[in-house]
Design goal:
4 copies of one chain form a homotetramer. By secondary structure, chain A is of the alpha/beta class. In chain A, about 40% of the residues lie in helices and about 25% in strands.
């Protein structure tokens, strides 16, 4: 069984909506167990349990929120060096397009890499002129079908990578590479 | 007279359209002289001439194009250390939202900072859920009014900063700070 | 009078030592008033007061500490959009070289740009194979002369840029550009 | 057999020296086949062949060199979307500490993520105050034992991750996590 953890912070509820869609996407991969946790409730045990972790945050001043930062600094800081090789990814909701949501995703990936994680973005296009190359990003709440699908696709890809690399389902790698959604319009 | 240079690369013509709008925005600030150059035509003399420089590129693999990179590495590489303190900013067109246009802007700002430039993004919102905190970003060509206005606003802000800091028009700083467009919807 | 604020967080005391050296560098520019504040003590009024701000943090998981993040998110969050055009820079102490101190500086510059600041690094070399292109960085405490000088140089450059752009001392710009330390060995 | 490709650009020969050490580290993992290629000689077929790829560049203006950029833009651009899920990492030599080598590594990781790669840094310390959290970094040529070991460790970790995730040698993951070098002095 692949084990996927989704940790998120939320201010307006928008990032929480994204997190639920990421969870939905992860669950769509057969044999995946999913935990969905607000950053205030997530624990070291959750992180130790997971093979793959998606971390979401409102875009605050171009980076993850201070609560997400505190989680990595203080709550799981002493796991550092003991959890290398897990798989990680990011998602973020900003106030507007051009408001830093991609850069906030990069700040999350920076932290995950610091813990020795393998991190990724998704090459697929989930709609016209809409993708998630460095994590799922939305301005405001995920409302359109493509915004929702970006979140689901992130969770699905995370669960797929966990299935491929932790559960040995190598045949999935071909499916990932031959996604019908790999186009640039 | 404030002197603003706009350098761009373009593959499909989208970034060139952005560049022309950035130039339009810069010209809207009284007393600003503007040069608009494709990266193949820009020279060292252009860079030496300018007080402020906006650099635009298609988002290619999440960064500026290799031609933009080559310009900084090879064409103006030996100006390094002699042009500190100029003002710089960035713009980029990606294939889709979430496709790396913000991160491509950051790669441009990284190069400009390496030359000792003062770099900036813009806090203003130019439409509903649309801003340019790390540079003007568009998916595809600038088509909607807010996409066009993001480009113009970037050029205008660059020319304003040049007028404030190089030409001593300090009164403009108040206008920048009290922009009616500083809201998050 | 140029007004320079230095805000820092510190865990082991290393970043505090850097902060004091940054302050020393800023004071070396005639006509500069300097405030040095731990992040727990810095206030909105300090930020409103300053023309130039240097922000320092231990490198925690590749980014600024959560306390520095909380300062920008919560303490001065409602100044957003009203303090554009100030000048900012960064410094950071990591556990080791290659440990993320440059990337932590970039995370600080990201926040400062989000507030509309003009941000910069320094092209000068302050010793053999030692510079501060994205902010002053040290592994552990600033111990060698070049590590100390990197911190001082950052503060001095910040004060010089404030003098040039806020106090109209344009003649300093030539000095900045003709620094004897602009070499790559 | 795990297949590891090392691609590098070099100006002074320093990054080439790093590349050879990375190759040496990769070969130290039993059952690993290694290809070492200058960017001018690397081909699409090399990239298709590899399970894991380390990319090295001189730090040029804070990013990878334009030749490395051109390789991703033009030489292998049409593999985009067909090589997802490979494992990637970065290394860079800058003129000095604080000169952008970490940020150049991030620019390489940005490109690799854009291709759907899983990218990583290394938590291990390879000497006193010396690590490679975002890739192996050196100022000038790799001369000290810790600088050399950083390069070797990067290659070894890449080969270990390839062995774990592509060849199913799960027992290696424990060894990675219990490295005696995971300390902060």
């Amino acid at each position: 069984m692949g084990r996927v953890l989704i940790i998120y912070d939320t201010r307006t509820g928008n990032t929480e909506k994204m997190a639920k869609l990421v969870a939905e996407g992860a669950r769509s991969v057969e044999g995946t167990e999913v935990r969905l946790k607000h950053v205030d409730e997530a624990t070291k045990e959750d992180v130790l349990w997971a093979d793959g972790i998606a971390v979401g945050s409102p875009t605050n001043m171009g980076l993850a929120s201070w609560k997400i930062k505190r989680f990595f600094d203080d709550v799981i800081g002493d796991l550092w060096g003991e959890i290398d090789g897990k798989i990680g990814c990011a998602f973020s909701s900003s106030g507007g397009w051009g408001g830093g949501n991609e850069i906030a995703c990069m700040s999350i990936l920076t932290m995950l890499m610091n813990f020795g994680f393998l991190v990724f973005g998704v090459t697929d296009y989930v709609g016209k002129k809409f993708t998630l190359h460095y994590g799922a990003v939305v301005a405001g709440e995920p409302r359109s079908e493509e915004e929702k699908e970006a979140c689901r696709r992130l969770g699905r890809r995370l669960a797929e990578f966990v299935a491929i690399y932790f559960d040995g389902k190598k045949e999935l790698l071909d499916r990932v590479r031959k996604s019908p959604d790999k186009f640039v319009d």
